[in-house]
Amino acid sequence: MELTMHRPLLLIGCGKMGSALLSGWLKRDMLGEGVHIVEPMGATQFAEIAGVKIHKSVNDLPEGLTPEVIVFAVKPQKMEEVAPAYKQFVSPHTLFLSIAAGTTITFFESTLGRNAAIIRAMPNTPAAIGKGITVACPNNKASDQQAALAKLMLEAVGEVTLIYDESLLDPVTAVSGSGPAYVFLMVEALAKAGIVAGLPKTLADQLAVLTVAGAGALAAASKETPAQLRENVTSPAGTTFEALQVLMDDDGLQQLMTRAVAAATRRSKELAG
Ligand SMILES: NC(=O)c1ccc[n+]([C@@H]2O[C@H](COP(=O)([O-])OP(=O)(O)OC[C@H]3O[C@@H](n4cnc5c(N)ncnc54)[C@H](OP(=O)(O)O)[C@@H]3O)[C@@H](O)[C@H]2O)c1
Fold first, then answer.
1. pTM more than 0.85
2. pLDDT tens figures, 162-173
3. 158 in the Ramachandran plot: left (φ > 0), alpha (ψ -120 to 50) or beta?
4. Which among 9, 142, 270, 272 counts the fewest CB atoms within 10 Å?
């Protein structure tokens, strides 16, 4: 699908995630009608780019602005203070797209009104290098076309999956939102175990990070399942087999991961209220 923006984009918050998204849209030449940024810090890295207008506050936006999409990329704890000022832009032709973790569609509907077209998205940190996975959920006022537009916009920082059941965003947050931290811990643990087994630290660190990166890339690119790929490197009574006996024990990795994801899911529900 061709992305056709007939009106400008309005980006609220241009920190880590906002600027990663904006860089992706600019690189893909998606913003034909330009972008207005509201960012108290000034977003100076984008100041010289044609079509980009930066404002310190919502009060500085030009009169008569009718954005096609308003992207909320401020911290969740700022949302209650920030969102109400954008109620003035609610119309069937303006989509509100939020990437704030844990901020619910119900919050936006109570703040902006039930007529607002809203999509709540959950990206993850690999978005910073275009390798994110984002799950996005539209409310019943967002049209299929607006959902498709949001998907294309979010694809600027990686893969995107649309869902229509918001309750899934709690386990989504626990798996892909928090997931990069579990993988970083895996890198740390593998490196430390290598040191214990006799490797110098520099070599252990290098082997751990590149093994996780390479195996992740192989799992993503391969037609085989992760289980099949695992079996492919496991010869009977070999070294991998010995290690997997430990990792796949009754109190092994699966049990730990299931508990970790359950704990994060529970916390996501608590934070959403
Ligand atoms: N980083 C991630 O990997 C990640 C992953 C998933 C989801 N998210 C979500 O993405 C959102 C942004 O996260 P981030 O890591 O990009 O945070 P961030 O780097 O702190 O960016 C937020 C930006 O919004 C600005 N801001 C504060 N008040 C504002 C206002 N009234 N109007 C406009 N802008 C305002 C902040 O400026 P000040 O610094 O002056 O406050 C800051 O530059 C969060 O809701 C987070 O849950 C982030």
1. yes
2. 999 999 999 999
3. left
4. 270
